[in-house]
Amino acid sequence: MPASLTLPDLVVLSLLRERPMHGYELNQELERREVRDWAGISRPQVYYSLKKLARSGHVTRAGEGSPRAGPERQVYRLSPSGRRALATALGREEWATQRPPPPFLTWMALSAYAEPEDRLRLIRRRRAYLEEQLARERATLESILADTGPMVAAAAQVVRLVIRQWEVEVEWLGELETQFPVPGSEFRGQAPNLEPGTPNSEP
Predict the structure, then answer these.
(1) Handedness of CA 78, 84, 85, 88 (dihedral sign)
(2) What DSSP character marks residue 5?
(3) Which of 6, 33, 99, 135 falls 20 to 30 Å from 161 in CA-CA distance?
(4) Predicted confidence (pLDDT) per residue in 13-24, tens digit
(5) If you ran DSSP here, which 8-state letter would residue 88 be given?
């Protein structure tokens, strides 16, 4: 996306694309739609983005509200330049070619050096956590499908994807857990060679 537009900026522009809103209402929508689960935008970022987008002309004040009113109560609407900037940012190829590593995969790659008991404990904790999140996401999907609006269909597909990904990971974690039949056992997958004098050995 253009360097001048952050992810919070795009979320704000997208919500204002639907209808004019003030900062407080934007935050209410973020909560209601659970946008923070996939966008990582905080309440202060919403207000910062509104001020920034107003300075750039991507949003304008709606109605006859006092220009001194803060972004929490001042109603904003998307301007033509904001609509173009949003469409341009969402048309960039980099959206489809990024691969940020999930923290658990980073941990998994390094886990050969963790205590065996900790490896098993964290694998089990990850599985329990995902099962909790799956129940939450399934309830979220039901809530989304009961809603109306232009973002409903896309939001439902995002949640369906998350559910499928986590179902696969839960199954994989179950298989992985069988490689640790008793606490303190060694990892049965391919581990680094730690014999002295080998490329992966510890000093």
Answers:
(1) positive
(2) -
(3) 6
(4) 999 999 999 999
(5) H
**CA angle in degrees (0–180, nearest 5) for 72-42-127:** 150
Regarding beta strands 59-61 and 76-78, do their DSSP bridges make them parallel or antiparallel, or are they unpaired? antiparallel
User: What tokens appear for 5 in the block?
Assistant: 């537009």
Query: Domain 7-96 carries which CATH code?
Result: 1.10.10.10
Q: Which two tokens stand for residue 60?
A: 């304008």
Give the model confidence (pLDDT) of 182-193 as tens digits: 554 555 555 444
pLDDT digits (tens, 9 = 90+) for 42-97: 889 999 999 999 999 999 998 655 556 555 678 999 999 999 999 999 999 888 88
Report the half-sphere exposure of 32 (CA within 13 A, side-chain side).
Answer: 13
Q: Would you kindly state where each structural domain of the chain is located, as residue ranges? A: 7-96, 103-177
Q: Which of 134, 107, 141 is nearest to 123 (CA)?
A: 107
